[in-house]
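User: Please predict the structure of the protein below. I'd like the answer in structure-token form so I can feed it into my own downstream comparison script.

Assistant: Understood. Taking the following sequence of 661 residues as input:
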Amino acid sequence: MKKNKDTFLLSASDLANHLSCNHLTQLNKAVSKGDISAPSWSNPSTEALKQRGEELEAAYLKSLKDAGLNVVEASDNDSFSASVDETIAAMKAGVDIIYQAKLQEGEWQGYADFLRKTSKPSDLGNWSYEVIDTKLTQETKAGSVLQICLYSDLIFKIQGVMPDNMYVVIPGEEFTEETYRVDDFISYYRLVQTNMLSDLNDKDEESATYPEPVNHCEICRWWQVCDKRRRDDDHLCLVAGISKGQINELRSWNINSLEDLAQMSIPLQQKPNKGQAESYEKVREQARVQLEGRTKDVPVFEFLPLEEDQGLYKLPEPNEADIFLDFEGDRFAGDRGLEYLTGWVTGSEEKSEYHALWALDQAEEKAAFTKFIKHVMEVWAENPDMHIYHFAHYETTAIKRMAGFYGVYEDEIDELLRHQKFVDLYSVAKHTIRASVESYSIKNLEQFYGFDRLEELHDARLNLHILERAIELGQTDLINPEAKKSVELYNKDDCLSTLYLRNWLERLRTQQIQSGLDITRPIVDVTEISEDRDALQQEIAELYERLAGDVPEEKNDRSQKQHANWLLANMLNWYYREKKSTYWELYRLRDLADGEYLDEKKAVSYLKFVGTVEHTPRGIPIDRYSYAPQDCELEKKADLETSDGIKVGKLEAIDKVNRTI
């Protein structure tokens, strides 16, 4: 955003930023007017992403040239309007591809990555142009779609006809174009554009908006400024686990700060417009404990009421062979991310042993994954009561992803999940205590069980950025040994902290039992897989090895025949593997507490019986239920189960407006 006399020059980034955070628009406006100065802070990881984005763009440009297309690049003139004239001249000349097209109409301007000639007639002649943008992320976000909508709108002003489609090229084994119909998005784009211009014209002061916490805060240069303001105001977002919807509801009750919420009367004096009353009472109690910790200036916690099969009920008997696992991963590495460090600790607090497996490319990731799971299965065979402890769901998600991608140890992972060998200590802690923390991260909980880290967090995070940038840019040979050592120490700390957390939770369990509560260990009831299934899987595994056993992991290292063999090998078990991933998700959902299903799109909760609608030809009743406000992505005819694993039938219909199912 730039100030230009009585108006502002606006870009596609400004539009995307406004969608992410309207307060950011006001901050950038104030900077362009010279009222305030922009902070110098920047997220180190964004620099690597920018460079990788430029590399993707250059590689795609090369592919277009190699295809024999006539490519013209708009030059960077001192005068932007002169560059725009060059772009228009190239469009009128009918070149195949215009790279870095400069576009402007009124206050809007931008740099489209590529314009591609199509056969649709326009004011230019018997051709016109469509927009292609390159994006690193595998998931195209709303801001990216708004950007290509703006570019499509700008070339519409030049060629007189709106493009039919616009495209986003994402990284992968081949360049993949995602196609978006302009007509599907142009109205939404114009709504956002109108809202942004209205905000710019109507709100003269930065204070007219508030820095509400949003996802964009993670990469925004203003986050320190906004975070300070929220803390000065004791913003409700500081309450651990509170949702945006709850914040809006509480404000309508004139509750605007953490302290206000901590002092709110319960049970509630009024019925919430959205959500369940108990969820508001829960965040009120969380605010109360946080305020107590703040007032006393010491960390405090209290026990939550025991929930059957949750919290301390999910702690298995400790075993000398237990494993405490933590991955370090980079989701921007390569085409699909990379788990570049697998670390685990065994033993006791007094005498522990740390193990680390590094992986700086896919071949090494597969080798590390294979070695770790093989080790786990050997330990399990020798110690049937062992378990793998981790914090939150990242580790199990990564393990499932690698098993599915590489097609190895899938049945072993299935067995580990079926026998409940993975123990999520985040879930245990979250359903055991209420603590004076702003979030229930393992680092925030360490103050309660007295864990002191070996590596200072600031240094570790800096070295994480350095190492991950090298991985993302393919410069692993330049990784500083000191940075690698720091990251390994950081990982070791996380593994050790998981061990200390498990032991602390065991001590809490003992305290609760001594107070008179009956807390049992989890009972695992596993249905064994048939011998026929085992025999078939063995046959498939042998055939897979014959087809793809000697095929390189990296596609670029394969011959055409090797790649064909690899594809064929991975088709062998495709349907079984797809079904298995569904069951893995079912195991995860069953593991949740009732209150957590509100945040799960593959679940529906707080159902109330409305009545029987009709009966099927076989006499089976079709019953209608209402449900609480929540996002659902359930599909018609989907098989439904309760959280206890009881099959209840199929989904006949769902009305997301009236919230009935």
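That's the full token string. The chain has a mean pLDDT of 88.
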